[in-house]
Amino acid sequence: MSVIKGARERARNEVTAAIKQEASKQLAAEGAARLSLRAVARELGMVSSALYRYFPSRDELLTALIIDAYDAIGAAAEQALAGTDEEPPADRWVAVCRAVGAWAVAHPHEYALIYGSPVPGYTAPDDTVGPASRAAFALITIVRDAHRDGLLQPPPGRPLAAPVRADAARLAAEIAPELPIPTIAAIVAVWAQLFGVISFEVFGQFNRMIDARREFLDQAAAGLALQVGLGAAESPAEATPEDTIAATPAPDGVLRSK
Predict the structure, then answer these.
(1) pTM for the predicted model, two decimal places
(2) In the prediction, which pLDDT does 120 show?
(3) Could you give the C-alpha distances from 247 to 82, 238, 250, in angstroms and in order?
């Protein structure tokens, strides 16, 4: 009996994987808003009623794809974090940010599904919260370790406004009560900035502006580490005379470097 049950489970897992694979193709071709269970069933040679036994609605299929994407980017972050215990906190931070960015570039459609425009009419269920937190908690682990080891500095900047402090205090109680409240606020701010930089690359906003994309992300991530209070990375870029640009007006009035 257990052999038959195991065979059925394997068969179901195979069909589920095929459905999600075809849905991912449609996601790339049409976008999340146009994902259709009927179209997926048609491409797989299934009748719609059979597919509904696996995913009763488009939203459930969309949720499965979202969870897979969050788990994948979270696994990339956790893999980058593993084995970095002996490295300085800022270097650990850059390594995780680099891994997250690399995953996004390699999986632009999945990235757009979780960090792009919301899908009209779709509300993510609580099932997505855990997977969505994995990448963030890889970075929070670095901050916690730095705090434990006495290496965490107060984040720079102005004191928190009362409403911001209240939000940060609530978040601190939920995710890292041992961390200072200003640090929690800084983590949220740099989290948004990190994905701003990544989104610029994934969605082509750096075209004709930044060519050294990986190096630029490393530089930005090191700056974000400073904002959290992790200190400078051990291997900063070597300064060159071009690091200081004296701008002077050209005859045509355009500012140019000397």
Answers:
(1) 0.83
(2) 87
(3) 44, 22, 9
